[in-house]
Amino acid sequence: MAVVRFFTREHCGLCKDGLAMVEREMARAFGPPRLEYAPCTCGPTSVVRRAEYFDGSLLQVIDVDGEPELKSRFGFDVPVVEIEGGPTFSLQLDARAFAAQLLRLRGLEAAQ
User: Fold this and answer.
1) pTM (global) more than 0.70
2) What residues pair up with 60 in beta bridges, in sequence order?
3) CA nearest to 93, candidates 22, 2, 11
4) Residues 36, 51 contacting (CB under 8 angstroms)
5) CA-to-CA distance for 106 and 56, rounded, in angstroms?
6) pLDDT value, residue 43
């Protein structure tokens, strides 16, 4: 199960493109989302959307402007993608590296 956090801010062109790539690669790795919530009622107000996949993987879209701590941590250095138990990708997102990490996590689960 992958937990992916996509940090974004409003009016960010790189963020829009990056989110489309993350959603595409997660659908390739895990199938289409089983459930989607917008706005999210499951966490801090900075989580603006949440998608759950059939294997239990999660995508959380987080607006860094929603919390002062996130705003100071990321500033304008978005998009940032954090994969729990894996690497962090930022700004110019690499689709191949992101997809490889998702497949690696999926493979680790299958081996357990």
Assistant:
1) yes
2) 5, 50
3) 22
4) yes
5) 11
6) 56
